[in-house]
């Protein structure tokens, strides 16, 4: 046998690589479509809140302007 421990070293390297990849993955067990829907709803809520703050800010700034 001329390969020596090359096969074992390759297996060990691959195992470490797979462990590193698995460590970074989320494990919330929801499908891609449901995750997209959830994220879209969160973004809609954020946009609505931002729009309301903008409207409230512009309404208060116009009432506070000083006449010349």
TrEMBL record:
Belongs to the SERF family. Residues 58-68 have a biased composition (Polar residues). Pfam families: SERF-like_N. InterPro entries: SERF-like_N (IPR007513), SERF1/2-like (IPR040211). Residues 1-36 form the Small EDRK-rich factor-like N-terminal domain. Residues 1-12, 19-56 have a biased composition (Basic and acidic residues). Residues 1-68 are annotated as: Disordered. This is Putative SERF-like protein. It comes from the Eukaryota. PANTHER family: SI:CH211-39K3.2-RELATED, SMALL EDRK-RICH FACTOR 1.
């Amino acid at each position: 046998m001329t390969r020596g421990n090359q096969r074992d070293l390759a297996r060990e390297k691959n195992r470490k690589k797979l462990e590193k990849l698995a460590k970074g993955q989320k494990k919330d067990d929801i499908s891609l479509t449901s995750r997209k829907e959830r994220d879209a709803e969160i973004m809609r809520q954020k946009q609505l809140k931002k729009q309301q703050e903008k409207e409230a800010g512009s309404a208060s700034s116009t009432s506070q302007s000083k006449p010349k």
